[in-house]
Amino acid sequence: MSTIELTSKVRATRELQHLVDEANAEMEAHKDEIKAHMANQGTEEITVDVFKVRYTPVTSKRFDTTGFKATHAELYGQYCKESTTRRFSVA
After folding, report:
1. If residue 36 lies in a helix (H) or strand (E), which one and from where to where?
2. Which SS3 state, helix, strand or coil, does residue 33 take?
3. Is the torsion defined by CA of 58, 65, 78, 84 positive or negative?
4. Where along the chain do its domains lie?
5. Alpha carbon 56 to chain centroid distance?
6. CB neighbour list of residue 24: distance below 8 Å, 6 or more residues apart
7. Of 22, 31, 51, 90, which one's alpha carbon is 20 to 30 angstroms from that of 7?
8. Which of 38, 41, 76 is nearest to 55 (CA)?
9. Is 53 helix (H, G, I), strand (E, B) or coil?
10. β-strand partners of 48
11. Per-residue DSSP letter, 80
12. CA gap 28, 70 in Å, rounded
């Protein structure tokens, strides 16, 4: 790939990422409006046209690695695994 082609691809990638970011922000704004409407109605589920919309609490349990590391540092170290990944970014 030539430098010109590479530059074009990078510029297009940045532009597409900008569009994705804008679309995600707009989607979150819509979701927030729907959630606010549901909160005002005092409901966790509504049916709109053919869509069923739910906004319900979900409880989950997660392992507190920070707390475990603080109280059991040696044991924590025995079970830590290092992994390597590759990150792509355009700045």
Report:
1. helix 3-41
2. helix
3. positive
4. 3-79
5. 18
6. none
7. 22
8. 38
9. strand
10. 51
11. -
12. 37
Residue 53 β-bridge partners: 46
Residue 35: what are its φ and ψ, rounded to 5°? -60, -40
Whole-prediction pTM value?
0.76
Read off the tokens for 8: 């074009």
**By three-state DSSP, how is residue 17 classified?**
helix
Q: Whats the size of the chain, residue-wise?
A: 91
Q: What's the CA gap between 26 and 19, in Å, rounded?
A: 11
Tens digit of pLDDT at every position of the chain (91 positions): 999 999 999 999 999 999 999 999 999 999 999 999 999 999 999 999 999 999 999 999 999 999 999 999 999 999 999 999 999 999 8
Q: How far is CA 31 from CA 1, 12, 28, 36, 49, in A?
A: 41, 28, 5, 9, 17
Measured CA to CA in angstroms, residue 27 lies from 12, 32, 33, 54 at distances of 22, 9, 10, 16
